[in-house]
Amino acid sequence: MNQLQIQTLLHRSSPRISSILASYCNVDASPTADNDACSPYFRPQSHSSHNHESYPPSNIKPKAIPPEVLREWQTPHMPLLTSRQLELTLLEIQRRQRQRQRQSHRQQQQTTSQPSTQQQNDTKNTLPSNKKEAAVLVPICTVEGTPSILFTRRSAKLSTHASQISFPGGYFDEALDGINDGFNVNVGNCDARLVNAAVREMQEELCYNLDGLGIGYHFKYCKGETSYQGDTKQHIAGTVPFIYILGQTQPVPSMHGSFVTPIIGTINYDLPHFASDEFKSIFKGNPEEVDWIFTVPIQDLISSETSEPLKKWGDQDLASTKGRYEFYGPVYPVPECDGRKKEGDRIWGLTASVLRPLLQKVIKPVFEKTMQLPRCDSEMLCY
Question: Which of these, 261, 375, 319, lies nearest to 58 by C-alpha position?
Fold first, then answer.
């Protein structure tokens, strides 16, 4: 296998991406305004009308999430969800938790005639107790010189989110990812614990061997413009880390109630096309966790975005509201060139809600001069 070559474009662009992400650490940590043009999802549409209505209609007064709970998610990083989107997500998690409780209670009633105390209180607005931390790595890369993003398709064997398109990542493990006493848990604007988790999970899922690639460092933190002084062409292959960590965003809730923090990084070496034997020899993949590893050009992601109803939301328990409202989320297609795409494969849900703000607010401004990127159509894309 030929030695991978350092990608000059990403090497020079990384400080600017890091700077954009760091700029959010110097402002109010609250999510962006609800009318933010690049907010990722939740555009409601009434079944009784084909017109998109502004959200929320004046007669809708959803149950409130306590401010102290919202603040747990509003870390001093780039927000991906607006205040309303975050609140609606947490309300949906509540609804699912209550639904699971009711199902459990019905099963209990088959063995006892007395309702449990938990059953009597299952209508309370309790938030999920599962607050496990997880991290995903958003790997910006180049493929034969084309700026792209790497994705995986989760194994069909997994108990959650099986066969869905995602970023590499997983749960934080204190034993594997924790920081020793005396070391600062925060490096720049990043939580080093979550960075460790995201990078570890990526290597476990993709199964790449740095020694075999002749690369001496797994990852380093990008610490601003000074990290890249000098001509990058003079860098010797192997001395540049495989991944530069550029920053992180605010966490977003999974439907299981976990805190999922996106970590943004760049793969500093130019990759071959994902359908090639060389790519498959670099990323062999762990079949227990992923069954496909592929890349999508950034230009294709931005130009091909559409939206679709988020079926998981269904009927909303909104006071003084009649009828059913659909909430729309961004969707991105996946390539078909190596014959491994399955029916229904698309980038949607949490992965798309992370991807869209990063594309519009961070990645597009950095690469728009080197690629012919489309303008954001406010009627079609921004909602």
Answer: 319
User: 313 with 339: CB under 8 angstroms?
Assistant: no
Q: Which of 372, 378, 383, 339 is nearest to 147 (CA)?
A: 372
Q: How far is the C-alpha of 31 from the C-alpha of 91, rounded, in Å?
A: 17
Whole-number Å distance between alpha carbons of 359 and 78:
13
Question: What's the pLDDT score for residue 322?
Answer: 43
Is it the case that residue 340 has pLDDT exceeding 70? Answer: yes
What's the predicted TM-score (pTM) here?
0.82
Mean pLDDT (the chain) is 78
Helix or strand or coil: residue 203? helix
In this predicted structure, the answer to whether residue 54 has a pLDDT above a threshold of 80 is no
CB 156 within 8 A of CB 340: no
Find, among 250, 22, 310, 285, the residue nearest to 168 by Cα.
285
DSSP β-bridge partners for residue 48? none
Nearest to 10 by CA among 138, 142, 137, 139: 142
Q: Which of 150, 147, 99 has the alpha carbon at shortest distance from 285? A: 150
> Alpha carbon of 195 to those of 68, 72, 201, 281: distances in Å?
26, 19, 10, 25
The tally of CA atoms less than 13 A away on the side-chain side of residue 2 is 10
Contact 96, 224 (CB under 8 A): no
Q: What is the pLDDT of residues 86-112, one digit of tens each?
A: 888 888 888 878 887 888 888 777 776
Residue 17 backbone class (left: φ over 0; alpha: ψ -120 to 50; beta: rest): alpha
Beta strands in 172-258 (DSSP E): 186-187, 190-191, 219-221, 243-248, 252-253
Q: Which residue matches tokens 């398709």?
A: 153
